[in-house]
C-alpha cells in the first residue's frame, strides 16, 4: 500500500508513473479505464478515470504484474525449473548463508542487497517508490514523543517484543553472512534490516501467486513472501471486493464489484483491526468497520479454564496447533459476524465469552463444562445463566478499567498530534475508547435486564427499557450512526439470557414470595433478623435470606402458596449443594462462625417469627438450624454475582466510582 507520508518526493506521481512504464515494459498491464493518481488524503493510488464513460464492471482485470518483475526467495537462489525461472539480477549470496539463514532471512537480505545497489538494481523503479528508511510509520520507527501517544495501549509491549525478535534474527543472520565469507556484510545495517523486514511484512503476498512457475514440491506452505510491484500500490479499504489471480506468466488484480468513474480502486488486506494496521502497515483508519480489540487473559494451568484447555488438547491434540485464542471485543459495526448468533457475541467473541463464563462459573456450573474440538463452554441448562451474567459483569468492569487507562495515559499529551505517526496513534487510541464504550453499553444492557423485575418482556416493554438504558448516554456523545448501530446490535439478535429479572438485591428477594406473605416477612426479617452486628456483612445477610427462603419453600404449610419459580429454585439448590455434616469449627470462615453464634439464639428468633405473623417457621423448620445456616452461607458464596452499580457512569464522569454490588442469582425457566 502507498499510504500518505511526510515526504512526497520519493512517493511522487512521477516516480509511480515510471514504475508503471517499467512494469509495462516487462509485459505488465493496466486497464485503459484506470490511472495512477495522487492527492493529500489518499497519497498515490489507483482510480477509474474521471472521464471514463462507464463504470469498471465486476470481474475486470485492472492490473497485471508479470512474474518476471516479482521479487521472492526464488530470485535469491536463481531458481530454475521446467515450469519457470527467477533471476537474482546480479546479487549472489553464498549457498552456505542461504542454507543457514533460511527462507525469510534470505529474502530480507536479498531486498537489502538490491536497495544498496541503487540505480544499478533491476528493481530500482520499484524500490524508489517504496517508503524509504526513515520514512516508515510503524511503531518500531516511532520516536520517544510519538510513543507517548501509544501509552496505555498494547502496542508498546508488542513493539518491544517484535524489536527484540528481529534484533536477534539480525545478529544471527549477520554472523552467518560473515561466516560464509560475503564481502561487504557491514553494509547490511540494523536500520536497513528493520526497513526490509517492515516492507516485506507490510506488502508481500503469499507464494501461491507463483504456483504456475514453481514446482509444487519446491513451494512450501509458509516462509516465502512475494513482492508484487504495481499490484501492491492500491490503498487498503476494508471489505473492498478484489481478488488476485495467478496466471502462467503474471498475477492479476481483479475487481469483484462495479467501480464508478472517479472512484478509487482499493485493495483489501482482510479484516484487519487498527492495531494490526498500525503495527504492520504504519497507518490506521478512522471508523474502521473491522476494528476489534484483542483481550489477553492470564490463565494459569491450574485454574478451571487452564485445566479445561489441557483436557481439550488431550481429547483433540490438533487443537494445540492453534495458538490464537480468538479473544476479541468487536467494534459495534463489525460486519463479519456469524449470520446467526446471540446478541452478546456481536461484541464479545464466542471464545472470549465462553472462557470468561468458565472463569466466573461456580463449582456446580463447572460440573457442566462441555469440551469439544470447536471450543469449551458451559452447558446450557437451568441455573447456568449465572455464569453468563457473571462473565458480562467482568467484561463491563474490564471495559471500564481499559477506558480509564486510555484516558489517564492521554492526560499529558499535547492538544494536537505533531506528525503523521502521532495522527495515526491518535486515531488508534480514539477508536479503542469508542469500541470499549459501545461494547460497555451493550454488555451492561443484559445486566440491566437481569435487574429488571417489574416490566415484562414484550416488544413494547423492551423498547421502554432500552430507551431508559440509552438515556444514560449523554446526548451527542456519539454520532447518531454509532448510536443507531448500537440499538440495532441490541435488538437484532436474541440475548444469551432469555429472561429478565434473575439478579436480586437482598431486600428484593422477598418479592419472590406471594403478596400475602411479603408484609410479615419484610417486618420480621428487616426489623428482627437484620438488626444485629451482622447486618452490614453481605455474605451473612444473603446467607440468612437464603436460609429463610429455603425454610419457607420446604414448609408443608405454605409451599402450595408459593410460585413454581421459587420452589423449583429451592429444590434445585438442595439437590446441588449437599448439607454439611460435622463441620469442624476451625475450618469455618469468619462469616460461618458468626452464623453459628447467631444460631444459638434460634429459639428467640422462632418466637419472634410467630409474633410477627411468620407462622410457618416453627421448631421443625430449617430456619436458623446450624447445619442449614452453614449450607446457606456456601450457597450464597456460590450463587452471588458482583456487578458494577452504574457502569455507564464512565461516559459522564472523568472519575467514575467503580462501585460494585453483590446480587443473588435466582434463575427463571427458559
Automatic annotation (TrEMBL):
InterPro entries, per database record: SET_dom_sf, SETD3_SETD6_MTase
Molecular function, one GO term: protein-lysine N-methyltransferase activity
Superkingdom assignment: Eukaryota
SUPFAM superfamilies linked: SET domain (SSF82199)
Protein name: SET domain-containing protein
Lineage summary: Eukaryota, Fungi, Dikarya, Ascomycota, Pezizomycotina
Amino acid at each position: 500500500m502507498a499510504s500518505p507520508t511526510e515526504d512526497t518526493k520519493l512517493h511522487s506521481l512521477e516516480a509511480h508513473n515510471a514504475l508503471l512504464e517499467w512494469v509495462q515494459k516487462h509485459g505488465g498491464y493496466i486497464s485503459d479505464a484506470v490511472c495512477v493518481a495522487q492527492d493529500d488524503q489518499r497519497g498515490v493510488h489507483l482510480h477509474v478515470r474521471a472521464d471514463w464513460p462507464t463504470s469498471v464492471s465486476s470481474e475486470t482485470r485492472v492490473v497485471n504484474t508479470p512474474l518476471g518483475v516479482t521479487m521472492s526467495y526464488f530470485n535469491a537462489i536463481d531458481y530454475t525449473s521446467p515450469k519457470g525461472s527467477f533471476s537474482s539480477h546480479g546479487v549472489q549470496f553464498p549457498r552456505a548463508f542461504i542454507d543457514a539463514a533460511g527462507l525469510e532471512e534470505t529474502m530480507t537480505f536479498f531486498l537489502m542487497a538490491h536497495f544498496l545497489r541503487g540505480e544499478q538494481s533491476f528493481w530500482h523503479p520499484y524500490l524508489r517508490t517504496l517508503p524509504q528508511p526513515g520514512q516508515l510509520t510503524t511503531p518500531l520507527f516511532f520516536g520517544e514523543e510519538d510513543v507517548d501517544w501509544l501509552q496505555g495501549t498494547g502496542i508498546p509491549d508488542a513493539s518491544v517484543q517484535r524489536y527484540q525478535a528481529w534484533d536477534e534474527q539480525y545478529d544471527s543472520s549477520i554472523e552467518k553472512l560473515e561466516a560464509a565469507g560475503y564481502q561487504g556484510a557491514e553494509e547490511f545495517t540494523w536500520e536497513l534490516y528493520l526497513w526490509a523486514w517492515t516492507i516485506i511484512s507490510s506488502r508481500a503476498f503469499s507464494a501461491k501467486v507463483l504456483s504456475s512457475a514453481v514446482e509444487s514440491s519446491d513451494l512450501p506452505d509458509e516462509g516465502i513472501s512475494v513482492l508484487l510491484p504495481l499490484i501492491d500500490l492500491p490503498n487498503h479499504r476494508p471489505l473492498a471486493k478484489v481478488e488476485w489471480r495467478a496466471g502462467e506468466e503474471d498475477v492479476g488484480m481483479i475487481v469483484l464489484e462495479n467501480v464508478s468513474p472517479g472512484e478509487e480502486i482499493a485493495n483489501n488486506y482482510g479484516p484487519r483491526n487498527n492495531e494490526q494496521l498500525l503495527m504492520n502497515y504504519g497507518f490506521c483508519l478512522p471508523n474502521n468497520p473491522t476494528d476489534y480489540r484483542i483481550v489477553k487473559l492470564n490463565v494459569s494451568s491450574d485454574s478451571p479454564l487452564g485445566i479445561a484447555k489441557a483436557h481439550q488438547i488431550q481429547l483433540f491434540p490438533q487443537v494445540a496447533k492453534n495458538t490464537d485464542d480468538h479473544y476479541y471485543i468487536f467494534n459495534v459495526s463489525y460486519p463479519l459476524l456469524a449470520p446467526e448468533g446471540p446478541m452478546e457475541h456481536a461484541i464479545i467473541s464466542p471464545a472470549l465469552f465462553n472462557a470468561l463464563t468458565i472463569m466466573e462459573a461456580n463449582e456446580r456450573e463447572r460440573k457442566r463444562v462441555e469440551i469439544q474440538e470447536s471450543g469449551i463452554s458451559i452447558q446450557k441448562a437451568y441455573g447456568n445463566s449465572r455464569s453468563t451474567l457473571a462473565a458480562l459483569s467482568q467484561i463491563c468492569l474490564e471495559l471500564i478499567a481499559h477506558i480509564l487507562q486510555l484516558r489517564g495515559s492521554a492526560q499529558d499529551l499535547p492538544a494536537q498530534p505533531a506528525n503523521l505517526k502521532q495522527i495515526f496513534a491518535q486515531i488508534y487510541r480514539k477508536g479503542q475508547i469508542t469500541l470499549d464504550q459501545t461494547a460497555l453499553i451493550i454488555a451492561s444492557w443484559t445486566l440491566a435486564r437481569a435487574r429488571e423485575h417489574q416490566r415484562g418482556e414484550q416488544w413494547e416493554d423492551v423498547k421502554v427499557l432500552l430507551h431508559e438504558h440509552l438515556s444514560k448516554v449523554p446526548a451527542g456523545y456519539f454520532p447518531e450512526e454509532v448510536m443507531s448501530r448500537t440499538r440495532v446490535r441490541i435488538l437484532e439478535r436474541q440475548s444469551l439470557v432469555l429472561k429478565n429479572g434473575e439478579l436480586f438485591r437482598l431486600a428484593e428477594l422477598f418479592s419472590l414470595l406471594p403478596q400475602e406473605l411479603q408484609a410479615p416477612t419484610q417486618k420480621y426479617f428487616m426489623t428482627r433478623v437484620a438488626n444485629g452486628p451482622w447486618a452490614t456483612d453481605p455474605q451473612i445477610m444473603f446467607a440468612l435470606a437464603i436460609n429463610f427462603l429455603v425454610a419457607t419453600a420446604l414448609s408443608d404449610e405454605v409451599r402450595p402458596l408459593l410460585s413454581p419459580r421459587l420452589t423449583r429454585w429451592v429444590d434445585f439448590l438442595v439437590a446441588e449443594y449437599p448439607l454439611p455434616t460435622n463441620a469442624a469449627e476451625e475450618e469455618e470462615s469468619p462469616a460461618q462462625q458468626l452464623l453459628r453464634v447467631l444460631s444459638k439464639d434460634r429459639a428467640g428468633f422462632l418466637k419472634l417469627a410467630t409474633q410477627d405473623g411468620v407462622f410457618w417457621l416453627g421448631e421443625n423448620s430449617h430456619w436458623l438450624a446450624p447445619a442449614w445456616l452453614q449450607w446457606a452461607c456456601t450457597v450464597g458464596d456460590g450463587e452471588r454475582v458482583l456487578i458494577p452499580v452504574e457502569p455507564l457512569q464512565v461516559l459522564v464522569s472523568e472519575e467514575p466510582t467503580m462501585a460494585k454490588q453483590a446480587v443473588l442469582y435466582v434463575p427463571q425457566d427458559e
